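Students often ask why we bother encoding 3D structure as a string. The short answer is that it lets us treat folding as translation between two languages. Here is a chain of 64 residues written in the first language.
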Amino acid sequence: MVDGALIALGAVAILDNVVAHWLLGLHRAVPDGTAATVVEIGPLVVGIVLLLVRVTRERRARRR
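And here it is in the second language, the structure alphabet:
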């Protein structure tokens, strides 16, 4: 159950950052400049890591 929640959290973090922040330009943490890009990449990386690690863990658990 925890893996599923973290997979969902990772997916939401990725979608939120890509769609809302980058494509639509909504609710950015830092409005302009290079700092905005750096700040926005952090949650995206965290989302990707959560998604990949938890999907891998879930697949291993189902093989047992």
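Translate back mentally: Residues 2 and 54 are 9 Å apart (CA to CA). Keep this in mind for the problem set.
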